[in-house]
Amino acid sequence: MSFNNEGERSVYLRDIEDDAISSRGSRKWIGAAVAVAVVAALATGGMALLNALGGGGAQPEDVFPNSAIVFAKLDLNPSAGQKLAAYRFASRFPKVKDKVTSQDTSVKESIFGSIFTSSTSWGLDYKKDVEPWLGDRIGVGVFPAMDGDNKPEMALAIAITDENAAKAALDKAIAHATGKVQMVGYAFADGYVVVSDTGAHATALVAAGKVSPLALPAWSTYSDDVKSLGSDQVGVVWADVAAAYKAIPKGQLMNSPLGQLQGSSDPKNATGRFVMGLHVDPSFLEMTGKGIDLKGAGSLTTAGGASQAGLMASFPSDVFGAASATGLGKAGGALFTGLTNKGDPIGVMPLLRHLGIESGEQVEALLGSETGVVVGGTIENPEYAVRTRVSDPEAALVVARKALAVVPVPGLTIGKITDPDGIVAGVGSGLTASIFNRAGSKLGGNEAFREVMPDLGTASFAAYVNLARFTSLLTKDHPKDAEPLKPFNALGLTAAGGAEPSFRLRLSVR
Fold this sequence. Notes:
Elements (H helix, E strand, L loop, with lengths): L8 E5 L11 H26 L9 H4 L6 E6 L4 H11 L3 H7 L6 H11 L8 H5 L3 E10 L9 E8 L2 H14 L5 E8 L2 E5 L2 H13 L10 H6 L7 E6 H7 L2 H5 L16 E11 L2 E12 L2 H4 L19 E6 L1 H14 L7 H6 L5 H8 L2 E8 L4 E8 L3 H14 L5 E6 L4 E6 L1 H8 L10 H6 L8 E5 L1 H8 L4 H4 L5 E9 L5 E8 L1
Antiparallel strand pairs: 1-5, 2-3, 2-7, 3-4, 4-6, 5-6, 7-8, 8-9, 9-17, 10-11, 10-15, 11-12, 12-14, 13-14, 15-16, 16-17
C-alpha cells in the first residue's frame, strides 16, 4: 500500500467482539445500574477534570462537508460553563471522580482511546502510541454514496494534536493488521484525521469539507439548528429527514415498516431536520431534541388531542413511576372506525366486541382526552393504577365495568374521580386510596419531580421514574453495591407533537 499526497492510506480492520458478562437475581439489576452510573459520570464529569480551561478550536463539523445526511459528535473540551457544570455533576460521584483523575486512566482514554487500543483490532498502546496525538473531540457522519453501490458512506473525524504522531500510529496499526475483513482509509484535515471505508472517500470528504463545511451557515442550517436547542451541548446528533429516508437502500426499505406506509404517513413526503443535544447541569444530565421545519409525513407532524400531559402530577408523590399521554381517546376511536371501514385486516374487532366495545365513541369515552398509569407499592408487592381525564365519567365507567365483567381482575378497584373528572382503576388498596385522597402528598408538589419535568405544562406525553426510591429498595439486601447508585434522584421524559415535535430527557442527582 502507498500514500498519496493527501497523507491517506487504506487498512483493514478485524471484527470486534464484545465480551458479555451474565449475572443473576438482584445483582443483575445492580450491575446494570452501576454501569449507568459509571457511564453518566465518566461521560460528563471527566470533561472538567481533564480540561480546566474553556474549550476552543475546530469542531468535527468544521471539517465534514454539508452533504452530511446524519452527523453526531462528542466534545470532551466544551465551553467553560459546561466544564464547570460537569465538574460539579461529577462531584456527586466521588469514587468515579477519583478514578477519572488517577494516573492510570481518563475519560478520553475510555471513550476515544479504545477505538485504537482494542486487543482485537489495532494493536496499539494507548500511552505510547495514541495519547501523544489524540485530541478531545470526535464526530461521525453519514454521507451520500460515492460509488456505484448506492450505499451511504460513513466517516469518523477524530481531533489530533500532532499529525506526525498520528500518522506514525496509524502506520503501525496498518502493519499490525492481518486477516482483515473490512477496508479503512484515512486523510488529514485541519486538526483532524478523517477515517472512512477507503482512502479515496476520506480524501474526497476532506476536500468537500474545505469548500462547504457543515458548520458554515452559508452552506448549512446545522449551526442554527444546534443553537435552537437553547444551551451549550457536549454532544450533538443532527439529521436531514428527507435525505435520511432517501439514503435507505430500496431493497431494505421495501422490507421494512417504512416501506409499507402510504399517503400522508409516507416518510418520502417528509422534509426538515432533527437535532438532539446532550447538556450538563450541576444537578442533572439532560438530552433534548426537536424537529425543525418538518413538513409532510403527517405521522411526524400531527399533534395529539390535548396539549398537556399533566394528569400524572395528581398521583401520589411516593410512587416508583408514572406516565401520561394525551389524545389516546381520539386516536383509539379513529383506529376503531378505520378498522371497521377496512374490514378489520388485523383481526382485533372480535376481541373488542367480546369486551363490550362496539364503537369508536366508546373507545374515546373510555380513554378520554388524557390517560395516565402509575406504579407504587413495593418491589415484592407492586401496585398499579390507571386514571383518565374524560368529559363523561359515568359513560366511561359503564364501558370499563362492562369490559371488566368479561375479564375480571382480582383485587381491582374502580370508580369515578374529580379534579380533573375521570375514572380510576387500580390493583392495590394503598395506591388506589392515595389517588382518591386529594389531601395527600402529590407528585406535582414534589421538588424532584418538578426538576426533571420542566415541560410538563406543554407536553403531550410524559414519564417519570423515582430513582431514589427504586434503587434504595432494589439494593436493600446489598448495601455496598448500592453506593454508586445513591447520587441518582429522578428521571423524567416529556415530549410534544406538532409542526416542531420536541422531547426532553433529564436525569437528576442529589
